[in-house]
Amino acid sequence: MLWKILFMNFSQKNIFVTFLFILFIPSITLSKEENFNLWLNKLKDEAIEKGISKETVIKTINKIEILPNIINKDRQQPEFIDNFSDYITRNVSNRKVRIGKNLLKDHKNLLNRLEKQFGVPERYLIAFWGIETNFGSYTGNYLVVNSLATLAFDPRRRNFFRNELLGAIKILDQKHTSFDKYKGSWAGASGQMQFMPSTFLEYAIDYSNDGKKDIWTNLPDSFASAANYLSQIGWEKDYIWGREVKLPKGFDYFDAQLGTSKSVNHWRIKGVKKANNTSLPESTIMGSIILPSGKDGPAFLVYKNFEKIMQWNRSIFYSLTVGYFSDRLINISQLDISSLKERKLSIKKILELQKKLNFLGYGNLNEDGIMGTNTKHAIRLFQRQNKLSADGYADKKTVDFIKLSSKSYINTNIEY
């Protein structure tokens, strides 16, 4: 009976205090390492549920390590802060064009077969190859599984990268490569053409019939996989990606955006001409005018195949560079951007610009420091409203005007 009395006394005296303690005690914060281990356990269960062998999953999970420098790279991708002239000059040099032309000759038989089978002209495959990995000379040195695990654990785009990580483990399970040989970019793309795991699983081809889809060291597999991808997403074999054009005086720059698609005949009637100042052909093909450097830079008329290049990489700069490089390989065109003077906006400056545009009511922009389509459209709306050239380009005049218009905002300092 004594223990019952003691228990009752203890309960009566302490139960309320104990309740308060439990209610208000701060939750125990797990270390990042402990959180990561819990996350890995959940990943392991999900991978096994998706049909990946338990042996592969456990073997892979035990090797995974976080790579802290990956997060910094994720926040500073070149497409976010480069201007167009720097980007295209860096990626399409005269030397690179010469090498590409030689490789077109070296692999002509293979590329011709692939063009007949998949409908993708050979010059595009060489262009992708040259831009993605400098013709295979640098395919990336990061262990792909570790890179993807780091990005999947980070909250910014965790769902996307978690799916890619599961895909990478599946690739290992199918024995196309091994953990230590599965290397690529910091963002998880790998191989000669830099496929993400999900792209590999859906489009990679064992063209050489050796039992493996080897996009890392086998060129037939690499080229065929790229051609199959472009074909499957709707590449139109009889049409080009686009072309450089000249715009007439008085052109409404607000119409120069991917979201405005008109027939070539429409643009022709509006006075748009080829870069050599000759007339556009009569055609009902739909296309959009884009100005990657604003009204003072080059103008391009892009067609449906440009959209397919953008499915490979969502950057307009990247897609224009692929198209332009493919043209250079067959001596179609050469941009003259030597006199083009573009300034760069840093991530910090773009972030401040987004805050001011939101403050002024021009959209509900993600304040992320990325000069994406939505931010450019907000700039375009501001320019049109304030009787500026509505090209969506953040030149000095536009930035200064936004600055002046938002002077009541608490932070008005945008340095240019």
Give a short summary of the structure.
With 416 residues, this protein is mainly alpha-helical. It contains 19 helices and seven strands.
Portion of residues within helices:
40-55%
Count every beta strand, where a strand is a DSSP E run of 2 or more residues: 7
Which ranges are low-confidence, i.e. pLDDT below 50, for 5 or more consecutive residues? 1-30
Give the helix/strand class: mainly alpha
Cα radius of gyration in angstroms: 27 Å
Task: Specify the number of helices.
Answer: 19
Give the helices and strands as they follow along the chain.
HHHHHHHHHEHHEHHEEHEEEHHHHH
The main β sheet shows up as:
5 strands, antiparallel
Content of β-strand: 5-15%
Note the gap between the termini: 82 Å
- Spatial strand arrangement across the major sheet: 4-6-7-3-5
The dominant shape is globular
Question: What is the averaged pLDDT score?
Answer: 89
Structure, explained:
By secondary structure, the protein is mainly alpha-helical. It has helices spanning 2-24, 32-49, 54-61, 69-75, 78-81, 84-91, 94-106, 108-118, 122-133, 144-153, 158-173, 197-203, 219-232, 264-269, 304-312, 316-329, 347-360, 373-385, 396-405; strands at residues 142-143, 183-184, 242-246, 262-263, 273-274, 286-290, 299-302. The strands form 2 sheets. Strands 4-6-7-3-5 form a 5-stranded antiparallel sheet. A two-stranded antiparallel sheet has the order 1-2. Helix 2 packs antiparallel against helix 3 (54-61) and helix 9 packs across helix 16 (316-329). The longest helix is centred in the N-terminal third of the chain and has 23 residues, at 2-24. Mean pLDDT is 89; it is low at 1-30.
